[in-house]
Amino acid sequence: MTLLLWVYSFVGFGQISQDTIPLAEVEVYAPALDRFAQGQKVFSWDKKEMEAYQGRSLGDILQEKSPVFVRQYGAGMIASPSFRGTSAGHTAVFWNGLPINSPSLGQSDLSILPVTAFDQMHLQFGNAGALFGNEAIGGSVHLGTATEFGKGVEAGITQQIGSFGLFNSSALGGFSSKNFSSKTKIYRQFSKNNFPYKDLGQFGTPEVKENHAQFEQIGLVQDLAWNLKESNQLKTAFWWNKTNRQVQPVMGSKTNDEQEDQAFRAVIDYFHFGSTSVWNLKTGFVRNEQTFNASENNSTQYFLSGDWDQGITERWTSKLGARYTLTKGDLSTYQEDENRIELYQSTKFTASEKLSFALNLRQLVYDGTFAPFTPNLGMDWELWSGSSQTILLKTSAGKGFKVPTLNDRFWNPGGNPDLLPEESLSGEVGLTWNKKGNLNWNQSLTYYKMSVDNWIIWLPKGSFWTPENIKKVSNQGIEYQGSVGGSFSSWKWKITTSYTFSKAVTTEGIDENDQSVGRQLPYTPKHQANAKIKIDQQALSVFVSTFYVGERAVTADNPRLMPSYQLFNMGMGYNKFQLGKIHLPLSFQINNLFDTDYQVLYLRAMPGRSYQFNVSILL
Question: Beta 258-273 vs 277-292: how paired, if at all?
């Protein structure tokens, strides 16, 4: 049985050099995201694809390159994800294996997660509560930093300037030997966001200039890793991020709110590699500090976990683990602590080279309350394969859950400590076709169906609002993703496309007169699509991309619909400028090419056409 090694993956480890292992053959160890996710839709972006989004946020890359809808409150303002028609609180976000959603809000603001800060990004679609735990009802996002050994010295700086006062700077320095690796990133992002827009909140809709949406963000990421002796590895990572924002007011308003967000994240991983197993011990903490005007809301989470991944036989693989979480909430209206313990078990059975199954189980207990037991069963089956093409069937079914947030239970006044966890049942089936040749094709089509019970909604109760387990919601839809690429002469080209149809409706409302029953959830487009064509010739690259978002209801009873919109971006780059050993890649891009006037959310202004120029100096 070969040794399973931790590799360059969403928790950011590089493969250990094989000459440190006293075995003739070495296999790569994959994280649970890939290893036990049979039947689930997972895809990743490589480092080169993410380079085009340096200086931009996680929300931007999700909106423009994935089937995920991102609710944006303005340029640089709050951005929250919606996987398959679910809410932002139904998306779990991880950094190097640590859950980083705010325990008070139960979600992450994607606008303050800069792409510059991480090297790897993986998306998992659909219910994965059994694999990843709380909040992973609609999907999950996995961010990581990549560690490499034996690369020597690397260094570089990048500068971006653009429209509306954009001025982004970043620097990278690193060194790695056979058994040691260190990488440091620092960054600053700034934008005045003083873009013109038509103010629908004023009579005659005059064109005005936004004067209260300035955005500034600074951060530091540090990674260290050691290969210890022959069978041990230690890795630690730290991420500090601070954001100051002038909160963009709604159209017609003159508010001058300001918000500061500061986050500290740290993780330590220790791995021991046995002949047929891998032990992993992980500890870390995540602290979020938010000041909105004069109101402070802080939270800290401490994590301790361990798991054992073993190859039982050539066909059976198992992973057993536990995680303890201590949360301390210190908010403007309450102070509360919470303890969580969760046990998880994953088993994979490889029936043949073409057929495999995975069973995932998880049980979470928070402050003595049992969350719903969460199983998931999935299958990957290669239906047909030829000399140059394959057809793969993926199907899965399972449960998910979301524990009520600290705000849901303890906000004063209005918190409801008796709330039940939200529960989901879901299933999906998908086909993927791959063909290699003069044209390389990759096409996938997925159908999913989901129901969420005990959906939490805040309702007025006298002089304040309080949450209740009221709604039931049904989600179903189709996701298509495809690519085709080839070459002519010395040029390479590739076209990528995606389309999503999502029907997310309330099936049980507040009472018998609830007008939201049978209607699409607010700010959940039924139709969404994107496409990109990219052409490369050695040093030169050119791309044109577009994304479309369909109509969205503003309220639950759907009396007002936001119009659909389609935006186009284009850019070009040249990466062969060289001064001795110094590499000078250059790029230029135009966002919102046709200066489209649009809003994502009602009365939240968005910028028109903008330009961005990027230059890097790399060793």
Answer: antiparallel
